[in-house]
Amino acid sequence: MRARMTCEDGHLWQSVAHYHADEDGVVDLTKHPSVGGSYVGCEPMGLFWSLQPALGDKQDLRLRKKNVETPFTVDVSVLEGHVSSKDEQINGVRELVTVTLQRSYMAPGVRRIEIRQNGVVGTLFLPPGPGPFPAVLDLWGLGRGLVEYRAALFASHGLASMTLAYFDHKDLPGPPKRVNVGGSYFKAAWQVLRDHPQVCEDRIAIIGISFGVFVALWIATALSVNPRCVICISGPFCSTNKLFAENGQNVDEEQKHWHIDDQGYVSFGVSSLPCNIPPENFIQIEKLLCPLLFIIGEDDLCCPSTENADEIERRLHAAGKSHLFSRVSYPGAGHLIEPPYTPTCHTSIWASQPSQSMIQWGGNLEQHAAAQEDSWPRILTFLESNFRRKDNA
Q: Torsions phi, psi of 69, nearest 5?
């Protein structure tokens, strides 16, 4: 069997799996294991999470949905004979039958609203119905533009969600490739979300991935916004740069968030390793008042997430707040723990560098896919349980 799709940038992605049909000529992906190809074992969604750039196409790509209002279209075919995903002849093998599937990020009735209000740059997604709905403020890392697909999925699960730009966006002030916004910007964003008539003003959470972890924890501890809970995925709570002053304003000085390692890859390892950071550049995590879930990939080659989680746990324990902290750690998973069945990206082009440098995210294909499949329902359950809480202390 082969899955093929063309992404929005025009690149071909594909995966291959080998199956033995039963005596009736049937292959049931929920019962029958793949015995070769892109993955092995009983993996009902394996054809999707194992998609990789096709042989002969550009390699080291990261698959990201740009227009969430349109679905991904995937052709799944039964091929004549056994072929490998690396077989140069795969595109010439005869297709016995093909079915076209669509994978949507927005459930029917979900509404997408561009936010350009009070200087705030974001996109709000609302579930079907009148609400009001619990809400999530969604923060990504130091990539370009607005990343919308996780927020769209939250709305598809009944949560209002606003993904927020804070770095290198054409509608934000200041020079590119630096954080030019401060406390007033994030407070305004919180207020936009809180004041929406279809949002429960006292049931808002924050989720951050990569450098978005630093921003999420700073909002939760330095600003008087009172989130119900915070979810952190593969990121730091400290930075080489002091980004925000005591009054919450952006610090106007040179920012260098990453470095180039000995192998020539962009890395955040040195710039966010707690032992390398001056004390004044740590988030004051002791001020945290809400539950925190920290998700870690143990094969993270981009950021020392485990060391950051260890230090957060130590400081919360010293402050008598151990009960607020929980973590999930996944062996073999890399940095980019995204919604389930997103293809694993071990290495990709780092778009924020003018030279188009490469960055290593890490992650074993099968173990990373399993981490994404396991973490997503954990995230939804964590949100739901904290949205039900009556006490926010």
A: -80, -10
280 close to 242: Cβ distance less than 8 angstroms: yes
CB atoms within 10 A of CB 300: 25
Are β-strands 120-126 and 52-53 bridged in parallel, bridged antiparallel, or unpaired?
Answer: unpaired
**What would the pLDDT profile of 319-345 be if each residue is shown by its tens digit?**
999 999 999 999 999 999 999 999 988
Between CA 199 and CA 203 the distance in angstroms is 8
Q: What is the DSSP string of 263-306?
A: TSEEE-TTTT-GGGS-GGGB--GGG--S-EEEEEETT-SSS-HH
In this structure, the chain runs to a length of 393
Separation of alpha carbons 5 and 19, rounded Å: 21
Angle between helices 183-195 and 211-222 (to 10 degrees): 80
Bridge partners (DSSP) of residue 115 are 122
Whether 392 shows a pLDDT value over 50: the answer reads no
Residue 176 tokens read as: 């590119």
Active site includes 335?
yes
Share of the chain above pLDDT 70, in %: 91
- Position 393 scores a pLDDT of 43
> Which of 335, 346, 368, 375 is an active site residue?
335
CA separation for the pair 22, 299 (Å, rounded): 38
Angle at alpha carbon of residue 355, lines to 10 and 254, rounded to 5°: 125
What is d(CA 297, CA 325) in angstroms, rounded to the nearest whole number?
A: 17
pLDDT value, residue 259: 67
Asked about 299 being catalytic, the answer comes back as: no
**Catalytic one of 34, 38, 85, 210:** 210
Phi-psi group of 221: left, alpha or beta (phi > 0 → left; psi -120 to 50 → alpha; rest → beta): alpha
Q: What is the distance between the alpha carbons of residues 261 and 86, in angstroms, rounded to a whole number?
A: 30
Catalytic residue among 272, 300, 346, 375: 300
User: What mean pLDDT value characterizes the chain?
Assistant: 90
Higher pLDDT, 93 or 68: 68
pLDDT bracket for residue 143 (50, 70, 90): confident
Contact of 12 with 6, CB cutoff 8 Å: yes
Using CA atoms of 356, 357, 361, 366 in order, give the dihedral in degrees to the nearest 10: 70
CB 138 within 8 A of CB 164: yes
Does pLDDT of 304 surpass 80? yes
